[in-house]
Amino acid sequence: LTYAYCWYKKLYFMDSQDIFNKLTRGIRFNAVRKEKKNEIKTEEENDANFGNTMLKKKVNKNKLEAIRREQVAHFRNINGISASGKNIPDPIKEFIELKEKYHVSEQIINNLHSCGYKKPTPVQMQIIPAMLSDREILACAPTGSGKTAAFLVPLLAKLHKPSRQGFRVLILCPTRELSKQILRECILLGKGTGIVPHCIRKVSLDDKKFGPNFSKNLIY
User: Does residue 27 carry a pLDDT above 50?
Assistant: First the structure.
């Protein structure tokens, strides 16, 4: 009893921390440490999973881009298109793509159909999107391949609408016959747009016809 009394008496004057230490002497508490380890392990696993996901997305994106380039190269090959340069715009398959990708007016696309172009020719497939992307081009294609429409369509699309700024586009031709041919096709493709093409034969004569500021308004 004395021992019990003394132990009780001693215990009575202990604070809560001393009581806790006395009652739990020899007992190990691993739950908190284990939880921390588990938390650290979970965070590391999450970081690893996130990194793997991003890597997979990047790999998938690169694979898709490689597949797309391979498809474009195959399309060029089967249509006899040879193109060299950096970041060449993809060729088009249908004229409707000009409206969807490059915002070419529906009137110009309808004019193409009226001129007998139901589908783009190989030179038109590549040249039209390249010129609409403001690329400088040196092109070569056989006679009757649609070269004239290939460069006229982007020019008409870039002009958008009539303007009083003078001549905004200048097309140089080696012969008078070719200039007349281009003029006729330009009139047909520009029908309904309000853009008026003109064939300059002699600047001195056109100066008298259009006024003294005619040659000054030529925009090269």
Answer: yes
